């Protein structure tokens, strides 16, 4: 730091920015008392820095202090509380605590100590009167001081992964708070009723708080501005009826809530709803772009047999996925839907999708239903996976005039005539189909076929009557013979046919037999 000592004092007084990034030899900062005009001070990447000179407190114009990557710095000098103009401080991760004077930084706007080693917050933190964002995602923090309720300007508070055991009632004093995140806090067992006093709250995320039990306090119904409520992966047993008062609620996530037996009346403002049993197929859930699931799992592990008919009144609902195992009747769904995915649907009555004319994507997974039911709706994409498609009373001539992509994977399909000639906009077909075996046939003796057919860009198809007929192998060996030939009728406009054969009804690499094009 000899070059700093050689700088004339008159020039040092005029300097506004001092950047000493990545000075590996810097262990202690120099005397900064003559650098009175400094506004930005950068020590980023000074990995051997162990001490900041107390003279830093004389930098009355300093607005930004960057200590990122100062991994040897264990404490800050108490004089840092004298930086009345400081707006931003980028914290090092190795700090164990903040000095009590830290609360004197009355101009500070953002404080982020996430993923660091701080284990305690000073009570004086309530003095950060202009603080708008506070990020405390640190596994060493065990308590949130009551003084946090004095942060009158706070807009966003993140407590995720801390070890706090409760939220102080003073949280109700945060009248400007819009976002409260408290993901994966194992010590939290309940939400305080004071949460209803945070009148400007728009997002509440308590997902992953596995020990959050009982009912959510009814005071939550006062949060008239709440848009997002995420209680996924918790042990809550109920939502209060006051949830219906949340007139701006758009996203309600209740995935993997095994104790939640029923839902109250929901606000019609909802556009995204997740309510899933504990044991749903999460590999599928994660694959969805916007997953929305409805279902219930009681303490005895039996799924509900009815779905709330009120779901049809959610006139703003855009995307919906239903986990419907054991559901005996599927109520009429809102016509506003753009994406619909149904899982484990095997109702005794064929569902009525005739009002769903605005769908972009329609998906069926592990369902058992008549083939005609699939084509009742209007959609641009139709995906059918691992379904049992029942025999039709007569050949089907579905229209689905808007359909562009038809995708059928690993379905038990009785090879009947399916006339697609009315699907004028169909551009692509992708199929993996399984023939239903006789009762005496080993399950391992299946062959499957993949079809991927494309039309010329911008051209419609003059659809004939294609027949998808993957056939049954006779010996179950690696080189199977078939009882009859598989015939795929290529219609005008098809450019490509890809065929792959497996020797199993479980498509794994080891069972792959051959492919062709």
Set down the secondary structure blueprint.
Elements: H1 2-6, H2 9-14, E1 17-19, E2 40-42, E3 64-66, E4 88-90, E5 110-112, E6 133-135, E7 156-158, E8 179-181, E9 203-205, E10 213-215, E11 228-230, E12 235-238, E13 251-254, E14 272-275, H3 282-287, E15 319-323, E16 339-343, E17 361-365, E18 368-370, H4 371-374, E19 381-385, E20 388-390, E21 405-413, E22 428-434, E23 448-454, E24 499-502, E25 512-516
Parallel strand pairs: 1-2, 2-3, 3-4, 5-6, 6-7, 7-8, 8-9, 9-11, 10-12, 11-13, 13-14, 15-16, 16-17, 17-19, 18-20, 19-21, 20-21, 21-22
Antiparallel strand pairs: 22-23, 24-25
**Assembly context of the chains:** single chain
Beta percentage is: 15-25%
Number of strands: 25
- The total count of helices amounts to 4
* Rg result: 31 Å
Give the CA-based shape: elongated
Low-confidence segments, given as residue ranges, are: 278-305, 435-478, 480-492
Overall SS class = mainly beta
Helix content: under 10%
Average predicted local confidence, pLDDT: 77
